[in-house]
Design goal:
The chain is an alpha/beta fold. The chain has seven helices and ten strands.
């Protein structure tokens, strides 16, 4: 078991402290177990808590209560510095916006996560290999402003993979792309999941993408349910 969520709840303080009653909950006793190498998607309407759940899994947010285990470690009991190390070494992130640094080249953007801690082996060679795999060998010295949206997202995927994470989290990765680019990126994510053995969790509104994952979950009133049936 790579990832386990037990009774994860997320509550936010009420806007009006005098309103009384319990604070609003976006997640209610969410339970999820994911084996290494699996893929799954999480769907649901806007505001249902999909991105919040993904941020909690990725340690970018903290649950109000519950237990979150990644690779046997209880992430709810780690210090901020320990969480930063875990994110760098074990988790790759892909967002709707690629968040590439405009002043850096494609190759430099991909290598940024490797600067935090020295990695074994030739990380630049890995970066070049991965960029070639996604069809960007001819773009290594280009900057993001010289690339298409689809090319920028492929760079973001490679950046997420550069430290060989065990888990990749993708939040609406095709949301800003045209249909052709979205289909290309979907194929890439599936290929990476299969060939790299990376566990993949995708939050998306795009049902064609969601349904290509191994399991489809839906957030309904703060609770995660299996929608694959």
């Amino acid at each position: 078991m790579l990832l386990s969520l037990t009774n994860i709840t997320k509550q936010y303080a009420a806007v009006d402290d005098d309103a009384g009653g319990a604070p609003p909950s976006v997640l209610r006793d969410v339970n999820l177990s994911v084996d290494a190498g699996n893929s799954l998607s999480i769907v649901g309407p806007s505001g249902s808590g999909k991105s919040t759940l993904l941020q909690i899994i990725g340690t970018l947010d903290t649950p109000t209560s519950g237990q979150l285990l990644l690779d046997g470690q209880d992430l709810t009991k780690q210090s901020p510095d320990q969480l930063a190390l875990i994110r760098n070494e074990k988790i790759g992130f892909i967002f709707q916006s690629h968040h590439l640094l405009p002043q850096c080249t494609v190759l430099e953007n991909v290598l940024i996560p490797t600067l935090v801690h020295k990695k074994n082996g030739d990380v630049e060679a890995r970066a070049r290999k991965l960029l070639g795999r996604v069809g960007l060998s001819h773009r290594l010295s280009h900057r993001p402003g010289q690339l298409s949206g689809g090319e920028c997202q492929r760079v973001a995927v490679v950046r997420a993979l550069i430290n060989q994470p065990k888990l990749v989290l993708a939040d609406e990765p095709t949301g800003a792309l045209d249909q052709k680019s979205a289909e290309t990126l979907a194929e890439l994510l599936i290929e990476i999941n299969r060939e790299e053995g990376v566990t993949l969790i995708v939050v998306t509104h795009a049902m064609p993408l969601a349904q290509r994952m191994g399991t489809v979950y839906e957030l309904r009133e703060g609770t995660l349910v299996d929608a694959s049936q």
